[in-house]
Amino acid sequence: MMSVGISVLTVEDDERIRASVKLALEDEGWTVHEASSGEEAIEVFQRTTTDVVLIDIMLPGIDGFELCRNIRKLSDVPVVMVTARADTHDVVAGLEAGADDYLTKPFAPKELAARIRALLRRAKPSATGHAKLQFGNLEIIPDEGKVLLDHNEVVLTKTEFRLLCELAHDPGGVFSRELLLDKVWGYGYFGDGRLVDVHIRRLRMKIEVDPANPTHVVTVRGLGYRLQS
Amino acid sequence: MIDPLLDESKARYRLTRARRIIRTVAKRVRPKRIGLRNRILIIFGVGSMILAGVLATTTYSFTRSSLMQQREKAEINLAFANARRVQNDLLADRTAIEIALNQVGDSHRLLYMDGKWTGTSQMFTESAIPPILKDQVVSQRKAAIMTTSVRNGQALIVGIRLERINATYFELDNLREVREALRSVQIALFFSAFITIMVGFGLGLFASRRAVRPLANAAQAARAIADGSLDTRLEPTDDPDLQVLTAAFNDMVSAMQQRVERDARFTSDVSHELRSPLMTLAASVQVMESRRDELSERSQAALDLLVGDVSRFQGLVEDLLEISRFDAGAVRLVKEPLVAHEFVRQAISVSSMPKTEVRVTADVESVVIRGDKRRLARVLANLIDNARIHSGGRPTVHVQFAEEDEPIGNIWIIVEDNGEGLIDGEAEKIFERFSRGAAAGKRSGQEGAGLGLALALEHITLHGGRIWAENRQDGIVGARFIVEIGIEAPA
Fold it and tell me: Which residues 46-105 of A are in CB contact (within 8 Å) with B?
């Protein structure tokens, strides 16, 4: 299936963790590239084809946030952050730097594999099979993975695109955070709602003319989010 | 067999011990010390009493002596004038003694002439005159004045020799005006003394309150520190006396805070450091587990032990980290509104006994609580773990409104088990860190480190709720753990 041939880049300064995670992910049948620092990671990333990047925030040299921003400049691949704690600012900062999901250390490699699989799911935006979805000045072309704002192409990450497609699935319908967490990230009840909030914020920065006063992705107080023209 | 000698010495030992205990108890029940406030009040009160007393006494004696001096002078002048008139009258008619005496003034007079005493009143007779005065005036022929005591107090007697008629004249002034003046002075002094004492007590009350106020501040700060806000400091003051206390207090708190933070940081650092090897362990164990079939039976058994303990170790490190976060005050709740019964069902479904029955009373169906769902879920998971480990039977979870709740603002999430129940004093102890309850030791290595309930307590406290344990109230043997938490939107 789609998990076959996935190539993961793990950026982690602890050699033993890297080795063990590599072993565990290779058991999934995936290819694992390693980097022990942010500088090395950029180099490896440019040299190889990578489907997903795993970044430990605490890195020597350039830190995980900076590395994440650098990778975002190069690519839209899913990025999973490894943080020390779930309740710090680290999580939000990591997501704002462009990460798609996060894990707290120590995590089970099985959990990591599940997260990666969820992030690599293909976007399936339209049940009706429309080739093009129009929301005012916003245009979504699902098959090509393209989004146009005023006819100019907007670069979204894979996860942002999937989130947008999910919202486009039922235009005008209200999506709760729980529902979006389930659909986009595959999380159950105990998923972190901040994932949705930060991704919505990132999406607005890209597809709204004025991100502070969104017209497309609007908040429905106490209920969730909605996509409109 | 018991050695009788040993028994005796034991008895003696017990006796001396009992005596010692009685002595300590006796020492403890000695009269309570007078508090600082009362001491200040007493000092002010007694001080003002002494002050008022001394002032009143000196004022009175000064007034009295000066009044007496004035009176004496006046009396002497008057007596001489009277005596001169009496002498003149008697020079004219030596027999008209009574007329002559009665003609002058209204004081008491006495005349000794030709060996005969003549007086103007019953009260003032020869016997009323002190012998010394009589001797001075009659025998030595000198004028003299003397204070003497008469029936109703003191009186002045002036004796004057009337040479021309060869007689002696005595005049008595019973000092009525002086006495009256002194009485009003007494009343005035009494009232002013009373007012002084009252003012003294009033000042004492004020001063004692003021003196204790910095202590009250310090006590309040100490209490705040005990409650965990280690950032509390006493306000700096420019009062040189208080500065010493304030500085010492603040230094103490700083030192304590440093120690607490160092301890917390140590726990945190240790746990953080443990996470990296743990990560490697968890990943490696998983790799081995996926190749379980390739291993020999003995290796499989060893692997199972390894897998079990790696996850136990992981749980312990996570608990320690969480505890150290609480100690450092670094826990930030990610609160959100949660539908109570939905949350409880979800939390139970990810606990170690996901099939545990959850009973929800109809009236709490729509109740919403506000909390950090992952932390609250940990609490329920820990309670379920506790029930699983310490009581064989399946627990039941109830969600209902708090019993006997005055304002209906709280719900109870109850985890009820069929174990042996709690013994006396256990209910509080089990929430202490690394406490495992009375049943500890009997159990297998399946149990946790004893941090679960301590963490649950921290989590619930941070959510502004309460958690406690008690024996079941429905007649069935077993314990129940109650989480009380405020509701956000009453049904």
Answer: 84-88, 105
Provide the β-strand partners of residue A102. Answer: A81
CA distance B345 to chain A (A): 10
DSSP state of B401: E
> Which ipTM was obtained for this model?
0.83
Preferred mutation among B273, B276, B332 to probe A, highest tally of A CBs within 10 A: B276
Tell me the per-residue pLDDT of A141-196, one tens digit each, with 9 for 90 and over.
887 888 888 888 999 998 999 999 889 888 888 999 889 999 899 898 888 888 99
- Type of residue found at B210: R
What would the two tokens of residue B197 be?
């004492």
C-alpha span between B81 and B74 (Å, rounded): 11
Q: Which of B273, B278, B280 to mutate to test the interface with A (most CBs of A within 10 A)?
A: B280
Residue-wise pLDDT tens digits, B410-448 = 889 999 988 888 888 788 888 888 876 555 444 444 556
Q: Which stretch of DSSP H or E encloses residue A154?
A: strand A152-154
* Confidence at residue B491, expressed as pLDDT on a 0 to 100 scale: 43
Look at residue B213 and tell me whether its pLDDT is greater than 70: yes
The beta-carbon neighbor of B286 closest among A108, A193, A222 is: A108
CATH topology of domain A133-227: Arc Repressor Mutant, subunit A (1.10.10)
For chain A, the structural domain boundaries read: 7-119, 133-227
Residues of A in contact with B374 (CB under 8 A): 86, 190, 192
CATH number of this structure's domain A7-119: 3.40.50.2300
CATH class of B82-181: alpha beta
Structure confidence at residue A12 (pLDDT): 93
AA identity, residue B86: V
Residue A25 confidence class, pLDDT cut points 50, 70, 90? very high
CA distance readout (Å), B164 to A13, A63, A173, B92:
138, 133, 142, 12
List the beta bridge partners of residue B117: B112
The CATH number given to B240-327 is 1.10.287.130
CA distance A30 to chain B (A): 14
Chain A interface includes B276 (CB < 8 A): yes
- For the entire predicted model, the pTM comes to 0.63
pLDDT at residue number A3: 46
Superfamily of domain B336-489: Histidine kinase-like ATPase, C-terminal domain (3.30.565.10)
**B332 has a chain A CB within 8 A of its CB:** yes
Each residue of B342-359: b (16+ CB within 10 Å) or e? Answer: ebbbbbbbebebeebebe
pLDDT at B420: 82
| pLDDT value at residue B136 | 84
Average pLDDT over residues B124-143: 82
